């Protein structure tokens, strides 16, 4: 540390860490010049070496980039690194109910959890069916005697507890057989209120698809929409028809360049990256309209996925059915699509791709809102 001069005769006092010495002004200036002449060549040499190394690195990256475009493939180390860029599926939630198609939904959920090494939570909501609600309301209005009312309510409680115990037994047996880490939740209330709340803390929610011929539970017709709009998480809807119990090996992406499609694609990226093949389907796409599938295919390839693009033509009112037909023709086992490309009011009045997919679903569909 340099201290202020203590004498006025031109001699300055300097204090070092271990010793004290005295120097005159001319001596200091000569020493400073000698040090600069010694240090500057050393700094220039180091800068030159650093620039040379940076130039070599830029050339190496450019050569590898050209090889990617020429060969259409990336080195294995780059692919392995790209696969780690997205967040993997580590927590799944499957909603189970007393319908006859709940077991197939459970099998699909267990298969996905096993493939992605994810934790699977089974959620069962104890609720009354429409027939049970009708009888309970009639009893409460006095249409049944008091003792009959107690008997009716008791029979409902017994039926609900039996159905919940059966679902839990099936869940535990399936997860143990597959070696999947599992958790069981059973709550009383309305499923269209409980499931969206529970789905907010998982990576993917798996639901069943409601049809009029299924058991008439009051919440089923609106459960899918409630989860899509209130949970903020991607939702996989499993159809009630007999089909694949291991979805996600051949994925069909319905791509139109919209925000909803981009959100669904990003949420499904762990599934797409792990799939054997992904087909990006565009309908009535024209060059320069932003709906071309080439850009999103390159995005998938950058994440280590194998993807191709297909463009088909269809009537505007038939886009949803065209997507379903093409998925069946290429034997895809999952569809990824954005949810509600139009406003909800217009969607309810005019129909649309989303509503067509939900009504005529024939294979698992992953949607995000």
From TrEMBL:
A Pfam family that the UniProt record links to this protein: Usp
Residue spans crossing the bilayer: none
UniProt-listed Gene3D superfamilies: 3.40.50.12370
InterPro entries: Universal_stress_UspA, UspA
Domain UspA: residue ranges: 249-367
Assigned protein family: Belongs to the universal stress protein A family.
Protein name: UspA domain-containing protein
């Amino acid at each position: 540390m340099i201290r202020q001069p203590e004498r006025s005769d031109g001699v300055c006092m300097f204090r070092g860490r271990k010793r004290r010495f005295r120097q005159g002004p001319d001596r200091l200036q000569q020493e400073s010049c000698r040090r600069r002449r010694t240090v500057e060549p050393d700094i220039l040499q180091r800068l030159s070496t650093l620039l040379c190394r940076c130039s070599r690195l830029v050339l190496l990256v450019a050569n590898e980039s050209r090889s990617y475009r020429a060969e259409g493939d990336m080195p294995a180390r780059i692919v392995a690194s790209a696969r780690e860029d997205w967040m993997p599926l580590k927590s799944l939630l499957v909603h189970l109910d007393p319908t006859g198609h709940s077991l197939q939904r459970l099998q699909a959920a267990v298969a996905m959890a096993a493939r992605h090494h994810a934790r699977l939570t089974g959620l069962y909501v104890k609720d009354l069916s429409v027939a049970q609600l009708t009888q309970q309301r009639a009893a409460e209005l006095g249409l049944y005697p008091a003792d009959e009312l107690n008997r009716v309510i008791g029979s409902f409680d017994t039926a609900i507890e039996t159905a919940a115990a059966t679902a839990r037994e099936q869940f535990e047996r399936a997860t143990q057989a597959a070696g999947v880490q599992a958790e069981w939740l059973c709550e009383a209330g309305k499923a269209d209120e409980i499931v969206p709340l529970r789905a907010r803390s998982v990576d993917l929610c798996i639901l069943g698809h409601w049809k009029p011929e299924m058991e008439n539970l009051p919440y089923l017709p609106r459960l899918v929409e409630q989860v899509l709009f209130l949970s903020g998480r991607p939702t996989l809807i499993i159809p009630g028809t007999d089909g694949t119990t291991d979805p996600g090996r051949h994925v069909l992406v319905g791509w139109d360049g919209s925000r909803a499609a981009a959100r669904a694609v990003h949420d499904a990226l762990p599934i797409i990256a792990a799939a054997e093949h992904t087909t990006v389907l565009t309908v009535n796409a024209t060059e320069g309209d932003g709906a071309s599938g080439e850009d999103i295919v390159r995005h998938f390839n950058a994440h280590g996925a194998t993807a191709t693009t297909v463009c088909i033509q269809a009537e505007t009112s038939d886009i949803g059915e065209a997507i379903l037909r093409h998925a069946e023709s290429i034997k895809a086992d999952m569809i990824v699509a954005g949810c509600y490309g139009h406003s909800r009011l217009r969607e309810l009045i005019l129909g649309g791709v989303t509503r067509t997919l939900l009504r005529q679903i024939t294979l698992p569909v992953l949607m995000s809102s």
